[in-house]
Automatic annotation (TrEMBL):
Keywords: Cytoplasm, Glycosyltransferase, Magnesium, Metal-binding, Nucleotide-binding, Purine salvage, Transferase. Residues 18-164 form the Phosphoribosyltransferase domain. It catalyses: GMP + diphosphate = guanine + 5-phospho-alpha-D-ribose 1-diphosphate; IMP + diphosphate = hypoxanthine + 5-phospho-alpha-D-ribose 1-diphosphate. Pfam families: Pribosyltran (PF00156). The keyword Magnesium applies. GO terms for molecular function: glycosyltransferase activity. Its EC number is 2.4.2.8. Pathway: Purine metabolism; IMP biosynthesis via salvage pathway; IMP from hypoxanthine: step 1/1; Purine metabolism; GMP biosynthesis via salvage pathway; GMP from guanine: step 1/1. The gene is hpt. InterPro entries: HGPRT, Hxn_phspho_trans, PRTase_dom. PANTHER family: HYPOXANTHINE PHOSPHORIBOSYLTRANSFERASE (PTHR43340:SF1), HYPOXANTHINE-GUANINE PHOSPHORIBOSYLTRANSFERASE (PTHR43340). Its cofactor is Mg(2+). This is Hypoxanthine phosphoribosyltransferase. It comes from Bifidobacterium miconis.
Length: 187
C-alpha cells in the first residue's frame, strides 16, 4: 500500500520507500562484514519490526537465522505504558549466540533496554541493535545502538510495519497521520 492509497489519512510522508531501502542496504552491508564468521541470530519484536527484519535480512550477504518475540508495552494508543511482558517467546536457545536485535523504532527505549537485559540473562555471546528509526528527544533509558537508521522528530509515525490501532502496517513508506485519525472522525 502506498501513500496515495490512504492519502485522506496521511498528513505527510516522513521517510520514503527509497530512503528506507537505501539505509537498510547500507547497514546490511556493514552488518554482513561484522558478523561474517559469527552465525548471527536476528531477533525482531512483533509486529512492528517484521518489515524491517525481512528487508534487512534479505539485504545481508551472509546466512542468518531469524527469531521473533511478542512483547506488550504499547496498547492501541500512542503512549508507552513502560511495562514489558512476554506474550510469545523465542523458539531459539540464545545461549552463546551472537544476537542482533532488529528494531523498527526506539521511542523511550524502555522496551529495548528490557530486551537487551533479558537476552544477556539468557547467556548470549553478544547483543547488538539495529534501529531503523529513533526519536532522540523521547529517549528516557540509555540503550547502546550499534547500527543507526534515521532520526525522526517527536511525532507518532505509521507504515513499514508500524501501526496505529493495527492499521497502516502495510504502508510501504513511513508517514505521519492527520490528527483527525486519532480523534476517530476520519473513518
Ligand atoms: P519504546 O519502548 O522505545 O518507548 O517503544 C517501543 C515500541 O513502541 C516500538 O518498538 C514501537 O512498536 C512502538 N512505538 C514507539 N513510537 C512509535 C511511533 O511513532 N509509531 C508507532 N506506530 N509505534 C511506535
Ligand atoms: Mg518495536
Ligand atoms: Mg503498535
Amino acid at each position: 500500500m502506498r501513500i496515495a492509497d490512504v492519502h485522506n489519512d496521511i498528513d505527510h510522508e516522513l521517510v520514503s520507500k527509497e530512503r528506507i531501502d537505501e539505509k537498510i542496504r547500507e547497514v546490511a552491508a556493514q552488518a554482513s562484514d561484522d558478523y561474517r564468521d559469527k552465525n548471527p541470530l536476528l531477533i525482531a519484536v512483533l509486529k512492528g519490526a517484521v518489515n524491517t527484519i525481512a528487508a534487512f535480512s534479505q539485504a545481508m550477504s551472509i546466512p542468518v537465522q531469524l527469531d521473533f518475540m511478542s512483547l506488550s508495552s504499547y496498547g492501541s494508543g500512542t503512549v508507552s505504558s513502560g511495562e514489558v511482558t512476554i506474550r510469545q517467546d523465542l523458539s531459539t536457545d540464545v545461549r552463546g549466540r551472537h544476537v542482533l536485535i532488529v528494531e523498527d523504532i526506539i521511542d523511550s527505549g524502555r522496551t529495548l533496554a528490557w530486551l537487551v537485559d533479558e537476552l544477556k540473562r539468557r547467556g548470549t555471546a553478544s547483543v547488538e541493535i539495529f534501529a531503523l528509526l529513533e526519536k532522540p528527544s523521547r529517549r528516557e533509558v540509555d540503550v547502546d545502538v550499534k547500527y543507526h537508521g534515521y532520526e525522526i522528530p517527536d511525532e507518532f509515525v505509521v507504515g513499514f510495519g508500524l501501526d496505529y490501532d493495527e492499521r497502516y502496517r502495510n504502508l510501504d513508506s513511513i508517514a505521519v497521520l492527520k490528527p483527525a485519525v486519532y480523534q476517530g472522525d476520519n473513518a
